[in-house]
Automatic annotation (TrEMBL):
Protein name: Uncharacterized protein
Compositionally biased region (Basic residues): 165-177
Compositional bias of kind Low complexity: 138-150
Region called Disordered, residue ranges: 132-177
Amino acid sequence: MTMLPASRVAGRTWTVRLTGHADHTVSVTCSTGACRMPPRSKDTVAMRRFAAEHIRAHARLATVRPNAACACRAADCSYHEDSRASCTGTPLLVLIHNPAVGQVWTLAEICQACARLIHHITVLGRAQGAAPAPRTQPAAETAPARVAVAGGFSSPEAAPEAVPRRRPHRGGPRRAR
């Protein structure tokens, strides 16, 4: 375990996990022992909704501590395994959840440097009295905002003209206009 300076306290993490079982039921577990979880159920959608709401409840009750050390560093930077960071910046409260997998929700106090490297992250809070995150690029080099384009095209030049479309006639009697 890494020793922290006296001014720092260990960053907290909460993990809510949805686990499937051989009998086609699912259960929800929380890393906080005091939390009461519902019994196993075959209603996966309801259990997933419960897990998401449970982690949101932890987030509502948690206050980011300005002297919190990075929980990611304490976990050997396992939240961003592909790269290393020197933990710097304001402590943030973040939610890590990959919707493609959808079975684990992690709420953690981590630093800004690690937060930039983690995929599927939502920043939920910042330490009280903390300054906004410094910009990594000067404003002159910032790319212009993308224009929303209909049809899913990536550039306005490639977008077709917007033409109102009518539904094709599908048989049956036609209505008089």
